[in-house]
Amino acid sequence: MDPVRNPYAPGAGQRPPELAGRDDELAAFDVVLERVARGRPERSLVLTGLRGVGKTVLLNALRSAAVRKGWGTGKLEARPDQSLRRPLSSALHQAVRELSHPEESMRDQVLGVLRAFAERDAAPGAKLRERWSPGIDVAAARGRADSGDIEIDLVELLSDVGGLGQDVGKGIAVFIDEMQDLGPGDVSALCAACHEISQSGLPVIVVGAGLPHLPAVLSASKSYSERLFRYARIDRLTREAHDRALTAPADDEDAAFEVDGLAAMYAATGGYPYFIQAYGKAVWDNAPRSPITAADVDVAAPEAERELAVGFFGSRYERATPAERDYLRAMADAAAQLQDEPDAVGSVATADVAAVLGKKPQSLSPARDALLKKGLIYSGERGRIAFTVPHFGRYLRDQS
Question: Positions of the region Disordered (predicted)?
């Protein structure tokens, strides 16, 4: 098979050649865009799922849908060591520019508020790089979105930005990736702002994406967050969608898969979108001819697994300290001992992990908490933990 024509594209957040299995989410979001633009009530959206299921890809596809509708959009990636102000300011600045409001004076007024919001946390005499305002050549407004209370300031800022959208019959959408990494104060402020904006009927929505415990993070901040957002669990693809993700790009390159080849691919990938692209690329490069068979998948599997071991699993494993790696391996061993399908996505009790290591659960809290902060594991319920990466347990056991 010609490697130049290989259509498969494993990459972080990189859109696959065929965005299979997400038609329902895209169609539902089109309805949200139309309803919000017409002043009808609608909730903001939160996408949750494991690493490698395509949350970022879907987030970008939803943003593209908003852009096609003429909305103003901006995107940011949350980081645990960064306040929300500066990245959100950058995202909203882009959204205001995309909106193309015809009244320059009104747009400049909002940009002044945006600049005041962005610069509020800068210390007196701060250097230019610490006072975010690229492209904003209007003076910072005073007395609006600059109180220093992020909750008050965010409500005022989104109200003003939403007013611009309302003037032109369009909306403003802010897309936040890795939303679980927002600080507690920023999460609380964002929830409060979304609540206020929805009550005001302004055309502003937030679309967040994060790990499976993101709903719990939001709920811990504001009890009404369960009603504030519409939650969509993004999971691995069905067998039908998996086959389409492989066959549609192959058809475009005048190639095909045999039925047994597709079955072998599904068995190897489990339907996880990132794995589909990684195996698809390796199988294409190694297959001698079309159609691709189960034997071709078997030959290429070691190459795909090496790629995943370095780029998907290994890069995360290397971020852990020796004590944290011991904890991860103990999680994998506990799953193997207690579950019929140890590589199925599931959680294990922290007490079982401690038993594998022969230690008391309390003594392992520092390692567990560090892994939670690094996003390598998550806790969906009290006393239980799970890997954020599918098949991570198998990788760890193979390394032993």
Answer: 1-22
